């Protein structure tokens, strides 16, 4: 997976591509995998880096959505549980079952949540993970040694999936190339081509070099998540927004706050949200929030009220209340919720995915979540076949293994506080299209999320390694470190 080779392929291609996909998050990558696996000539263009936005800032769960079961959205839960099982089967190197404990502090909570989670098990069918069951007080403490024991009566254990979101994104990019497709990061869509009023391609600009391309396509898919309305207005300047972004924030804490292998799920917090505390890469991810925001930005920042909510709520369930000084990193992502009604209440907005086809043939897909990315891809490629005038080809991704990236070679550790070596950095550049320090420390490795301060400390060393691989000079090193430092500052609590 080499960016120079991909750009050369773009220059050399003179006939229209079958499909051009704008957006390199979960949805766009999934659609490109699906299209390439059906045998189509597909190009994916991402304006920044693969999974730069929402797709690298999830709660790191592949799950059916217990909260949606509670809301009565049975169809969404059924679909998500099915897709959870397929993803665990197709990417076993990234997705694994995790035990979740629902602590019970009232007599009714154990039976109430126990029944609901048995229904959750049943809905998963043959693709289920492990059965849920009630736990005694002692069993609950054995799973979560740091749980608040005052008033604890017991709990319920159930199983969902956990994964590394950005790592899956990069492996999907590998899979696109493995199936004959092309994906390029740092390649922005700056306009649409039209012929006789119909979309016939895209105008692209390489944000690293300034080179511009006019690319023909038989169908164009807009898979840009919370930014989809901006692309829709390239097609129709009068198009109204269909997405109401909702922000979800997470805090990353040391492993000592949750030393075992089990996660905590709080199904009903003070304001009705669900809260998770999840072991991940020898850390603990705590979140998430659900707050509507006015407009999407590439680097959303957690609001003070979100930070306070997570700290206050998690303190009720842990013996040691986390303090601001304990937080290693804080990050936020924006969910592309589709408007319905007045669109003011984010809790009432659709979590399902939506596909729109404009009068000129631009195909937009938005909404959904990581767990259902494969089904979203299948649905949008089905629609793209119709728009492009192709005969239907069967989707093959239900049983398509996701290609694992290169195995890291041994190397010299970069920091005592991070699990990465110089070999990881070289792999990121040579085989995974990392072009900046942020690409490498935020998404090829997860250093920025695991420890923002430590990641800032190793940034100059990472820049030197990358410069040697990319043929860059000291000015480039200073610039890429400065840009990373600016981004990383937002991952630290003041």
Helix proportion of residues, in percent? Answer: 25-40%
How would you state the average pLDDT, rounded?
93
The whole-angstrom Rg is 22 Å
Oligomer: single chain
Which band does the percent of strand residues land in? 15-25%
What's the number of extended β-strand segments?
Answer: 18
- The low-confidence parts are 341-349
Q: For the terminal residues, how far apart are their CA atoms? A: 38 Å
Number of helices: 15
Main beta-sheet strand count, sense and barrel state:
10 strands, mixed
What gross morphology would you assign?
A: globular
Structural class, from helix and strand content? alpha+beta
What characteristics describe this protein?
494 residues; alpha+beta; 8-stranded mixed beta sheet; 18 strands; 23% strand
């Amino acid at each position: 997976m080499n960016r120079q080779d991909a750009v050369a392929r773009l220059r050399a291609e003179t006939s229209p591509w079958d499909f051009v996909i704008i957006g390199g998050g979960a949805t766009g990558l999934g659609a490109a995998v699906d299209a390439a696996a059906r045998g189509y000539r597909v190009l994916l263009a991402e304006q920044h880096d693969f999974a730069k936005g929402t797709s690298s800032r999830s709660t790191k769960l592949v799950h059916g959505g217990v909260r949606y079961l509670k809301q009565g959205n049975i169809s969404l839960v059924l679909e998500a549980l099915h897709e959870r099982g397929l993803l665990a089967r197709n990417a076993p190197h990234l997705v694994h079952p995790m035990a979740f404990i629902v602590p019970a502090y009232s007599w009714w909570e154990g039976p109430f949540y126990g029944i609901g989670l048995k229904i959750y098990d049943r809905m998963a069918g043959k693709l289920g993970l492990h059965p849920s069951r009630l736990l005694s007080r002692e069993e609950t403490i054995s799973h979560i040694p740091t749980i608040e024991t005052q008033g604890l009566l017991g709990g319920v254990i159930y199983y969902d999936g956990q994964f590394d979101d950005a790592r899956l994104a990069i492996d999907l990019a590998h899979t696109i190339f493995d199936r004959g497709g092309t994906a390029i990061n740092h390649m922005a869509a700056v306009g649409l081509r039209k012929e006789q009023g119909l979309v016939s391609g895209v105008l692209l600009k390489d944000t690293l070099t300034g080179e511009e391309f006019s690319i023909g396509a038989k169908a164009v898919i807009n898979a840009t998540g919370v930014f989809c309305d901006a692309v829709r207005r390239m097609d129709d300047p009068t198009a109204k927004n269909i997405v109401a972004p909702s922000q979800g924030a997470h805090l990353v804490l040391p492993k000592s706050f949750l030393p075992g292998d089990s996660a905590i799920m709080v199904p009903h917090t003070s304001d009705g949200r669900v809260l998770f505390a999840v072991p991940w890469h020898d850390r603990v991810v705590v979140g998430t929030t659900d707050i509507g925001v006015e407009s999407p930005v590439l680097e959303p920042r957690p609001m003070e009220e979100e930070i306070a909510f997570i700290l206050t709520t998690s303190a009720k369930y842990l013996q040691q209340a986390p303090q601001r000084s304990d937080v290693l990193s804080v990050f936020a992502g924006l969910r592309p919720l589709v408007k319905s009604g007045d669109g003011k209440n984010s809790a009432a907005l659709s979590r399902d995915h939506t596909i729109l086809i404009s009068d000129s043939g631009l195909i937009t897909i938005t909404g959904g979540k990581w767990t259902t990315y494969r089904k979203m891809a299948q649905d949008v490629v089905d629609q793209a076949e119709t728009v492009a005038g192709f005969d239907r080809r069967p989707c093959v991704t239900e049983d398509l293994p996701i290609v694992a990236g290169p195995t890291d070679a041994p190397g010299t550790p970069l920091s005592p506080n991070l699990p990465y070596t110089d070999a990881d950095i070289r792999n990121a550049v040579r085989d995974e299209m990392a072009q900046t320090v942020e690409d490498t420390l935020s998404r090829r490795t997860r250093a920025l999320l695991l420890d923002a301060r430590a990641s800032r400390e190793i940034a100059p060393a990472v820049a030197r390694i990358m410069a040697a691989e990319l043929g860059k000079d000291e000015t480039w090193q200073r610039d890429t470190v400065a840009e990373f430092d600016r981004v990383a500052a937002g991952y630290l609590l003041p």
